[in-house]
Amino acid sequence: DSGYVLEPYLMTPIRNAPLDSPEGRYTACHCQTRNCVERLFGVMKSEWRCLLKERILKYAPPTAARF
């Protein structure tokens, strides 16, 4: 994924790997997992709006804790 800087601990998909090879299966699993994580981020951002880019709290923490 080009959205992240390459780090030694970061697992990345293998480009142009044949689908029937171990590398291709790894890439398919990697892409499916990334898709699930991206959807989860979307759900979290819609549930907790303060996670959006603005990162502005709509309510003060004591007020929000009462909900």
Automatic annotation (TrEMBL):
Q: Which GO terms describe its molecular function?
A: metal ion binding
Q: What keywords were assigned to this record?
A: Metal-binding
Q: Which residues form the DDE Tnp4 domain?
A: 1-61
Q: Where is the signal peptide, in residue numbers?
A: none
Task: List all membrane-crossing ranges.
Answer: none
One Pfam entry name: DDE_Tnp_4
* The protein's required cofactors: a divalent metal cation
According to UniProt, the name of this protein is DDE Tnp4 domain-containing protein
What organism is this sequence from? Timema poppense
